[in-house]
């Protein structure tokens, strides 16, 4: 496609055959995977640069990870509203953020797995919390809302 594209551009714009056209490839996720494949096969066509962000190489695991939340929600017949999920994320970050010695809003999944039980115990004890995104708003995290997230965190360890 790159060769055809270059020829078409030169023909449409009346460029000479020896005119240099810069060729770049950019893609992320599945397009990143395709980009890596293109560069491996036809690297000379992309000698001006290729940006392949987060190429999806572990396709089987990726698809399972995408489907798992949907399956859990349908199995439990509960779809947590965004405010409830925001509350859960806020609590997870608050509980796990200081574990790496720096409170900066960055957490690692391993920290969530290790401390997921204490996070959900905390929800049982204190069901309402103020969300930082929405000042003066209390959100109730229901047992129905905790269950899908707890199940996701527990089962993601196995992936």
From TrEMBL:
Taxonomy, superkingdom: Eukaryota
Top-level enzyme category: hydrolase
UniProt cross-references to Pfam families, sorted A to Z: Tannase
Keywords tagged on the record: Disulfide bond, Hydrolase, Serine esterase, Signal
EC number assigned by the record: 3.1.1.-
Annotated GO MF terms: carboxylic ester hydrolase activity
Listed InterPro entries: Tannase/feruloyl_esterase
PANTHER family: CARBOXYLIC ESTER HYDROLASE, FERULOYL ESTERASE B-RELATED
Family classification: Belongs to the tannase family.
Protein name: Carboxylic ester hydrolase
Lineage per the UniProt record: Eukaryota, Fungi, Dikarya, Ascomycota, Pezizomycotina
């Amino acid at each position: 496609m790159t060769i055809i594209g270059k020829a078409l551009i030169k023909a449409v714009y009346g460029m000479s055959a020896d005119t240099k056209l810069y060729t770049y490839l950019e893609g992320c996720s599945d397009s990143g995977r395709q980009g890596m494949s293109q560069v491996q096969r036809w690297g000379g066509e992309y000698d001006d640069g290729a940006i392949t962000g987060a190429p999806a190489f572990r396709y089987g695991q990726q698809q399972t990870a995408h489907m798992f939340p949907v399956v859990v929600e349908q199995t439990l017949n509960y779809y947590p509203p965004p405010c409830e999920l925001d509350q859960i994320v806020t609590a997870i970050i608050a509980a796990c953020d200081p574990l790496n010695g720096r409170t900066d809003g960055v957490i690692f999944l391993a920290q969530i797995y290790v401390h997921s039980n204490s996070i959900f115990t905390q929800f049982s004890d204190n069901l309402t919390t103020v969300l930082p995104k929405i000042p003066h708003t209390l959100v109730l995290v229901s047992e129905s809302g905790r269950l899908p997230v707890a199940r996701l965190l527990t089962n993601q360890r196995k992936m």
